[in-house]
Structure formats: structure tokens, C-alpha cells
Amino acid sequence: MPPRRQRALRVIRPALRRQGRDNSVTDRPADEPEATEPRSSIVDAALYRDGKRISTPSSLAETYRQLRADAEAMAWIGLYKPSDAELLSLADEFDLHPLAVEDAMEAHQRPKLERYGETLFVVLRAARYIDAIEEVDFAELHLFVGPGFVITVRHGSAPDLSSVRRRMEDDPDLLGLGPEAVLYAVLDSVVDGYVPVVNGVSNDVDEIEVQVFGRDPKVSRRIYELSREVLEFQRATRPLSGMLSGLEGGFEKYGTDEELQRYLRDVADHVTEVTERVDGFRQVLSDILAVNATLVTQQQNEEMKSLTEASFAQNEELKKISSWAAILFAPTLVGTIYGMNFDNMPETHWAFGYPFALMLMAIVCATLFVVFRKKDWL
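RE: above sequence
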């Protein structure tokens, strides 16, 4: 026996014994009292015959009793975040496989379709776009589909299965085709729910393109966050094609109604369209990220160029200031020397001393001016 199955049985069997049950016992007298359930997560439970609702039990125990009493009825049980005790009760009543029950308990599963005997276990990832915060919210949905029953287990707010139930009840002919019809209706609802998400993500991509070319500094973070959402979207949609192909491959073996076959092919077409668009988003975001990186690099180069030009201009101004300072320093130096009050100084009493000092200042200044001019400092 595989290790994971052994682990699942170790978890489930003791819990069943604590409740006074065992998986080897599946049939109980109709009047046998049931243990009181501490909490109910039932959103809606109903029994159908020929596509019409014939009963709305208020508890799982009541659902079991009525279903045993009517062999032609189909039970559709909708649960929202059920407790382990409720899942174990369902596993005991409908002989659900331990591995499937363990997955439903733990949640956080990838989309998949597995067949355990006559029971199908389906995991779907529903999505909805939240306009207020411009984010995609993902929720997990599990389905157990077997002879005469459908169990839906939601671990999030999406999808709205009440609308699916109303639509199916409005079409008794379709609902009368049995549990597989419910499965296909739920699949269709989940896939249709992807369309608003695709449109929302498409708008986000358009806005990001505007931000990128508008040089918005916050756009890099938004690209990263949207890329993660698109990656999560891909994980939710890509496995659906294989799942639907698996169902389609069992048409002949399990005698699927022709109407349901057409229904499934329509869902498969929608899945292909959504998958292609989501894959396109991934490529577009990758291209936008590359363009943004190029624009950021270009902007940095322009800033560096501006800084270099400013630095060069400052250097030129500094050269001019330094040149004039040197030119003005020469006469200042001469005047300072000859302005000292000493009697014993050369040329102090020379008649040409003053003109000589002025001429010396002029020659030095002119010489410095010519030198700096040749060096393009002035």
C-alpha cells in the first residue's frame, strides 16, 4: 500500500472509531440514531428525482436517511469549510476514498481529477477579480461525484454555487441526467468565472503599460505582483485541459449522455480560450518588464549624463574663477610686498619704483591671462 494511503488511513480510521463508526460498515438501519453534530457547514442539501427537488434535509443525518429510503433519488450536498467530523461522516456514508478525504481536509491542492472506483474526486481553483483593490482572489473547490450523489466542498467565497443550483433546477431535463450533469455545470461556472478575471487582468496590463512609459517609479512593484497573480492563474487553468480530456476519454466507457458530451466540449473550448489569454498575459508582462528595465537603465544613463554635464560645467566655472583669482593675486602680491613699512628696502626711494611696480603687475597679469587663455580656462 502506498505510504500516503497508509497515512490517510491512520488519520481517518481512528477518527471514525471515535465516532462509533468504521469504514467497513456502510449500511445501517434507517432508524439508527445518529450522533449530534456540533457544527453544520451545510450551505444547501437537497434530494432530486428526475431533475426536480423532492426534499431539503436540514442535516447530513437526515440526508442519509432519506437517500437510503429512495434508491432513485440523487443527493446534492453543498458544504462550506466543513469540519473533519463532517467529512468523515460523508466518507463513511458514501465510501469515499481515504486519500480524497485527506485532500479535502487539508485543502491547498492543485487542480486535478482522480477516479476512485465509481467515485470521481475533482479539485478546482475558482477565481474572482476584486475591483476595489485590483487583485485576483483564488478559492479552492472540491467535488465528490458518485452514483446518486454529488458533494461540493468550498474552501473560499468563490464560486457562487447557489446560482449553479438554481440554473440546474430551472432545467430539470439537464439535472435529470444525474451527478455528471452537476459536475459539468460546476465546471462551466468555474470556467465562466475566469472571464471577468481575464478582463480585469487585461485592464491591469494596459494600465501598467501606461505607467511604464510614464516613468512611474512604482510600476516595477505592480508588474511583479501582477506576474505572481498571472502565475497563480496559470496554475489554476492549465490542468483543466488535461482534466477535461480525461473526462472526454471516458465518454464511451461510462456511457456519458450525448448532451453532456456537448456540454463538456463547450467547457473545454472556453478553457482553451482562457488558457491562451492567460499565457499571453505572462508573455506580455515579461516583455513589459524587459521594456521597463530598459527604460529605467536609459533614465539612469540620462541622469548620469546630466550629472556629468553639470559637473563639467562646474569645472569650467571653477577654472575661470581660479584663473581670475590667480591673475588678481599677482598684483596683490606685488602691492603687498611694496606696501611693507621698512626703510631698508630696495627701490623704496627709487624715482621709477612706482611705475616699475605697476608695470610688473601688468606684465604678470597679462602673462597669466595669455597662459590661461591658451589652456581654454578663460
